[in-house]
Design brief:
The protein is mainly α. Helices cover 75% and strands 0% of the residues. Helix 2 (33-67) packs across helix 4 and helix 3 (75-84) packs antiparallel against helix 5 (101-127).
Length: 181
């Protein structure tokens, strides 16, 4: 793997760790009514842009890992792409049309939820002892861990984190749209 790709993947792992910490902080904020109201206002205004940025960075990351880092996607990686790749297009069209996050939240929630489940399954394949889960293909590479930082960050975990962030933002943005009606 070229040095640039290794550095890029390390930066993605660090970004994943930071986003994981931010997600936990946001989840803790939801326990207070004032925190919920603050998040509803913020994500109601800027949620679409955040989702667009996160999903676009995720796509760029997958393509750089594949074409620069020579990490070919496995079957489960392709399925995760099926659910991630439409998200920036949906959010960009909504931004251009002046729609609110609450208008498209259901689409984003369903795409991110299914994508997160697939990514979590693959992450568990790579973390748990061999044979703990039924692999997608016993001869395939879905269970091969090519990236492992901070004792938990794998490529599928990066996807889980982005899908979870999109899901949380869309969920809060959806409730922001319904509470203002």
């Amino acid at each position: 793997m070229p040095a640039f790709a290794s550095i890029f993947i390390l930066l993605m792992a660090i970004g994943t760790l930071v986003l994981d910490i931010a997600l936990v902080a946001k989840l803790l904020t939801l326990f207070k009514a004032s925190g919920r109201a603050k998040l509803r206002r913020a994500y109601g205004s800027y949620g679409l842009m955040l989702i667009f940025v996160f999903s676009t960075l995720a796509i760029a990351g997958t393509l750089i890992m594949q074409y620069v880092g020579a990490l070919n996607p496995c079957v489960l990686c392709w399925w995760q792409r099926v659910f991630m790749y439409p998200i920036p297009f949906i959010s960009l069209i909504a931004i251009i049309k002046g729609q609110k996050l609450s208008d498209i939240a259901d689409y984003l929630l369903s795409l991110s939820f299914i994508g997160a489940l697939i990514a979590l399954y693959q992450h568990l394949l790579q973390i748990l002892p061999t044979g703990s889960l039924i692999p997608c293909d016993p001869t395939g590479d879905c269970a091969v861990r090519t990236v492992f930082y901070f004792n938990f960050v794998t490529i599928p975990w990066m996807a889980v984190t982005v899908f979870a962030a999109i899901f949380l933002i869309a969920l809060i943005g959806r409730s922001a749209g319904t509470s203002s009606n």
